[in-house]
């Protein structure tokens, strides 16, 4: 199988963050223009879909299990994520996800903001994720 091509060489965030919101089950309820541009999906293709529509198969399940545990506890989660574009290419992002609440302090969903990851962080994280994936098999 041909490996997808990274987009970090040709795609620039131009100082704008990728932002999305989900409900408590991880279903996308908001996607900003930069998210659509970088992921290759239209907003209509993203809304109502599980956020894992962009999950790259190189991402270990344990990384997302830890993320869910953290955000469901009410805490902010930070980490590097390799995402899969609609066209099969991929991109790495530094991600922050936090819960948000309604006016009655009831959990409403999660908001994520992402920016390009540095090459050094990608190399270190990719090696760690590779080891984690080997342990999952």
Overview of the structural elements:
It is a single chain. The protein is α+β, with helices and mostly antiparallel strands and 137 residues long. The chain has one domain: 2-Layer Sandwich (Beta-Lactamase), CATH 3.30.450. It has four helices and five strands, in the order E-E-H-H-H-E-E-E-H. The chain has helices at 33-39, 43-46, 61-72, 119-136, and strands spanning 18-22, 28-31, 77-84, 90-101, 107-116. Strands 2-1-5-4-3 form a five-stranded antiparallel β-sheet. Strand 3 (77-84) and strand 4 (90-101) form a beta hairpin. The protein is globular. The two termini are 19 Å apart. Residues 1-12 have low confidence and may be disordered.
Task: Provide tags for this entry.
137 residues; alpha+beta; Beta-Lactamase; 4 helices
| Strand percent estimate | 25-35%
Q: Class in CATH?
A: Alpha Beta
CATH-scheme architecture: 2-Layer Sandwich
Quaternary state reads single chain
Rg, Cα atoms, Å: 15 Å
- Which whole number gives the mean pLDDT? 89
